[in-house]
Backbone:
């Protein structure tokens, strides 16, 4: 266990990388999810098809395959050059975006259609209705599912260790191999992940109570 304690500063550097990738990816993923959700709800058929194909591809393939495709597959093309972190962020963001788009779409569809009709009768345009009436309510309703997806996304970042990103998991693997203290090292890594996710859950519960979602 002493080896794991001595390795804590090294592991915490990996945690910083993990949180950085997670933070950037979940923000980009949310933006992607919002755009894709609106594309799915539009009456423009080509946009619906593009959004549906994207969601089906992401949901129908393993995340590990997506990581390999973005990093190894795209980098094999002569005109592409992605470093590990950029490839990792892109992959995690695209993956999270697909799932978040379904959550956002469900949140929007859960709002009573009468509110849309009432806002239109008051002179709001379709864009104004979505921006000021529908989306604020939908986003509040989807907060619990957003938190669940954020937790899943945080755990998904551990797969990026396979392409050499020095995140918490990869640094744990390095230390486990160097010290031959696999049990202690992986226990420590697991505890760190658990603490971070627990804090994220507490933060979500606090926000939900503030908005009286429960």
Residues:
């Amino acid at each position: 266990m002493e080896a794991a304690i001595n390795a804590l500063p090294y592991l915490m550097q990996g945690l910083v990388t993990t949180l950085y990738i997670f933070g950037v990816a979940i923000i980009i993923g949310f933006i992607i999810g919002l755009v894709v959700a609106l594309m799915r709800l539009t009456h423009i058929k080509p946009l619906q098809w593009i959004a549906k194909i994207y969601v089906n591809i992401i949901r129908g393939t393993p995340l590990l395959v997506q990581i390999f495709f973005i990093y190894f597959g795209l980098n094999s093309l002569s005109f592409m050059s992605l470093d590990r972190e950029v490839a990792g962020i892109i992959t995690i963001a695209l993956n999270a975006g697909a799932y978040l788009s379904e959550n956002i779409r469900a949140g929007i569809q859960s709002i009573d259609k009468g509110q849309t009709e009432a806002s239109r009768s008051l002179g709001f345009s379709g864009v104004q209705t979505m921006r000021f009436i529908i989306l604020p309510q939908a986003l509040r309703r989807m907060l619990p599912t957003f938190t669940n997806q954020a937790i899943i996304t945080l755990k998904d970042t551990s797969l990026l260790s396979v392409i050499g990103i020095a995140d918490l998991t990869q640094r744990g693997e390095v230390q486990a191999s160097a010290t031959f203290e696999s049990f202690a090292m992986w226990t420590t890594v697991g505890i760190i992940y658990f603490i971070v996710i627990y804090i994220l859950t507490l933060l979500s519960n606090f926000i939900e109570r503030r908005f009286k979602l429960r």
Q: What stands out?
A: The domain at 1-211 is CATH 1.10.3720.10 (MetI-like fold). The two ends are 42 Å apart (CA to CA).
